[in-house]
Batch of 2 targets.
Target 1
Amino acid sequence: KEQLDSGVVLFLGNTESPVNYPANPYPFRQDSTFLYFWGLDIANAAALIDLDENLELMFLPDPGPDEIIWSGPGPTPDSLAASSGARPAGSFEQLHSLMDRAMRQNRRVHFLPQYRPENILRIASLLNISWEQINEKASLDLIRTVVSLRSIKDVQEVQEIEKALEITRAMHVRAMDLSQPGLTERDLVGAMFAIASSMGAPNMAFPPILTTQGQILHNPHHGNELQSGDLVINDSGAEAPSHYAADITRTFPVSGRFSQQQREIYAIVLRAVEKGIEAVRPGLAYRDIHFDVSRELVEGLSSLGLMKGDTESAVSAGAHALFFPCGLGHMLGLDAHDMEDLGEAHVGYTQDIQRSPQFGANRLRLAKELHPGYVLTVEPGLYFNPLLIDRWEAQGKCREFIDYRALDRYRQFGGVRIEEDVLVEEEGSRVLGKPLATSISDVEELTSERRERP
Amino acid sequence: KEQLDSGVVLFLGNTESPVNYPANPYPFRQDSTFLYFWGLDIANAAALIDLDENLELMFLPDPGPDEIIWSGPGPTPDSLAASSGARPAGSFEQLHSLMDRAMRQNRRVHFLPQYRPENILRIASLLNISWEQINEKASLDLIRTVVSLRSIKDVQEVQEIEKALEITRAMHVRAMDLSQPGLTERDLVGAMFAIASSMGAPNMAFPPILTTQGQILHNPHHGNELQSGDLVINDSGAEAPSHYAADITRTFPVSGRFSQQQREIYAIVLRAVEKGIEAVRPGLAYRDIHFDVSRELVEGLSSLGLMKGDTESAVSAGAHALFFPCGLGHMLGLDAHDMEDLGEAHVGYTQDIQRSPQFGANRLRLAKELHPGYVLTVEPGLYFNPLLIDRWEAQGKCREFIDYRALDRYRQFGGVRIEEDVLVEEEGSRVLGKPLATSISDVEELTSERRERP
């Protein structure tokens, strides 16, 4: 309220999202900003702040007489509203007439950009404007206010992220423990779901990436059989019951032992993630850390003869992006990519730090200066994508920095990624959650442990 | 094409559905009718039949140059179109100009009712009509045509449902096997997800209902601890990789032994489901079977002294609906409630057989005459919902048929449901899938087996 002038601020909670017919919805997920301000984890809610009257109103669906038969009795709308800190103000119809009045009085209505078409249509109907215009009419002041508040995590929020990390850690340990040739990726994914469900967190913060084809960054498939000699990238995170997210990545050998080649690439990525974490502190731009880590990766690849020439020039030319065609990390909070629905430019960039057009760096989600209370991921990787290598080589791209011949031995390598969740503190930073194996020997111990049991 | 006159028929596949920001979608689920006619399981596809030109066209998204980095190389749009049997006709922009032309020529455009707001907006924009009008402008001829085709399952479709049932059977066996006091509902649900994922079917046909509070019909919560003496209702079904659904229910005692009271209620429901299955045959209206089974339930409850008076009159008055406030079953196919997105009235009812206004029977999803090739669920249950009992008793409802005093001993009973998936054959019917314990002794064996192991 302090950051906004006048008018009314409209917050829409999420509705149910149908899978293949209306009565079969996906698992309900509340809008994160709605959760942040109002804490109500139910469908079809809406809230309003009247800045001029200093009033908060909550609009909730009427459960109807059949609720006790189909979904069981829940708290009353009044008690829900009370727990949100707002005044109960009826249902969506009441909101409709209130908005009608606000429009007649020509009051400013602040609302956020919408990612669910249900809510685009609800706002279109509430404000009587065309649905095509909703997102361009979203309030920039409100976006900036929400980003400024949600970006700084308080102690309770950090605790919630660490709860998500505790579940996530158990998922990762289970996947490593279970891994053996002959199983499929799906076996490991299913086991992770089971353990998360048992721990009270059946919903993932994002679809797990668990793949032996790690060179594909967001590989959504889980159909491969695990074979001796394969590396598995496991990039997955649970959502705590409060809906705060975790997001970590480990890379481990199916057979419990890294090969010499895997060991060399893994060691480079491990040094890179350590360097990245060490660099995180207030006042530094995350874009600079991204490029620091990129230089570290280039140094490592040069030591293996895969890259050559001056490191600084190679990174300036974007040569590292053949192996690291993405950004170093992103904000983390109630969303895995925190607040990305409000616009990545508002979350990760400022007027002064604009997005790079360069391949790779153009996918960097967080570039701006860091502040205490930010939680972000540090997730460098090295990926050997034969299709991308062929494309670059055919174009003769960055020939002065890349030894394409030496790359022949790595075409089937796959990829390595290591990711941690890091809190920016007053001085420096802290890796969140209990430690989970990253060193070569610790990872080998976790993955081979099982085979030593009776 | 034979059933429709002229014009063009527009089929929209589903888009990705965002959870909390656009880059974080729910697991993709293709529209069932799109799958049925075109077989393409990818997002953002659309197809068109030109009835007058006898032409099928497929519109597919351009994967873009970054696909090989983020999601891996897939089949080309041309090969996808070829596998669908349609001619590749470009992307959504090409569809747009084709539809513009069709509109200028005043041609009839058939489309189905839409349940995803993304597709409501896509059609609104393609046909330049207001989104509020889309569903009222859906083609009744097309709805009837699609329902007539999809209602009759051929041999391959039945096989796919039986594949879903094989996975579902494993899920149910696992839940019964695992069940013991001290675990939570979530532990069993997680284990079911894990086994389905291992078997290549990570997506359920609907959110599993697994609850000790079975009196709540669609109880979505899994937070209860299993306690000795509790009954668990497990109403869950996998979706085969082809997306055909299964949907079965078993009720079992946490502790491996039914109590005397549980045994008596269970036996009534078991007789009811057997009677329902036996009655399924071509030519009979499913509404009549619903009422047959309702009478069976009333007979059973009367034998226990919970109901009284004339059975026929009790069912006519709707007295049974205190214990069975829903319908006997629904169509099953690519959807758990097959084709429900097209309108339950078109799938389950006809001009001659209209929906009953009576409490309970008004929730019957399938009422019309059965034909060979229909697959449907038979799922009677008995539920003791204290809130509903109190409401009825306070209203003095059906006092001549219900002994409210005798019900006191059943207030904490919960519920029992047994559900099978049944194919209507030329003569009679067949329960689909391999048998899974329904008798009291078989269920007790499955649930107590585990405790006899070393």
Target 2
Amino acid sequence: MASIIGAVTLAHEFIRSRVKEGDVCIDATAGRGYDTEFLCSLVGKSGKVIAFDIQEEAVESTRRLISEKGYDGIAEVVLDSHANMDRYYDGEIDCAVFNLGWLPRGDHNIHTNADSSIEALSKALEMLKDGGILSLSIYYGRETGFDERDRVLEYLKTLNPSVYTVIVSEFTNRPNCPPICVFIVKLVEV
Amino acid sequence: MASIIGAVTLAHEFIRSRVKEGDVCIDATAGRGYDTEFLCSLVGKSGKVIAFDIQEEAVESTRRLISEKGYDGIAEVVLDSHANMDRYYDGEIDCAVFNLGWLPRGDHNIHTNADSSIEALSKALEMLKDGGILSLSIYYGRETGFDERDRVLEYLKTLNPSVYTVIVSEFTNRPNCPPICVFIVKLVEV
């Protein structure tokens, strides 16, 4: 069945090719829990996924999904801002996943914002081990998200190019504000 | 050994994940033959690779490399413009690879140009089967390639979004005109 490739498929291809059993991942924006579930399926019982969301509705959705899938022993779902992620884990991580925007099927007026997103990205990039990855999907449109999109993309340009490979991918022939996918690999030049 | 990810690695990851034994590929810009060789290694003896270059030096380099690697039975190297690719193969293809710019270790003044590149891209996209892919790396810098880069990227925006997924990837935190990687998947929405 042929179909169009979207941001989720692209991000999952990138993550799947690099995350393995036993890895430690952070889902910085749990939302409905789909990425938390996906990460749990990759890291397995020897791995760990810590998911964050500031909306109770999102945390509940994610906990329910994780429970249904039998991943309770792998994922921890935290009701707090992703900007505080370093309070909940103090080791190195293999992967961090961010979706900036609104809660799917939630209130479009409640949206991630540039200040806390950039703070959280900065912490996650610091926590990444060498060879670790960060996947960031930026959703914007209607009246929201444009400022966050611009400021986050500007911030990413400032990352040290000898440590971080920042790849910004855009669906340039799609109408109506298609999401932007960012893939970052932390590597030390040798 | 950790190291920075470059355009070639990124393009090869994309191609490797989708090209398989028996596939038919076009290397639209043979250059020193590295992509022709890479494609031959993926499609094997039951596959076919047709490579084009307008510079004799490039065609000779590519033929030599292919011969050294034992891929003579797989690759055909043609001294002609990629804009004429449809004269050399009239079936559907699985993959096309383009590198726009100058010949590596060659004369920087001899450069692909927007008109023939866009004509060749258009033919390759037409020849792709559903599910087929096109990888395009755009090199530019010094005084050359900026016009071609801009016109090619503008052209790609005009492709039908229900048929072609066009993903333009940029290394946004690198200085000095890093190459732009474009990945296209031809798919019919179902």
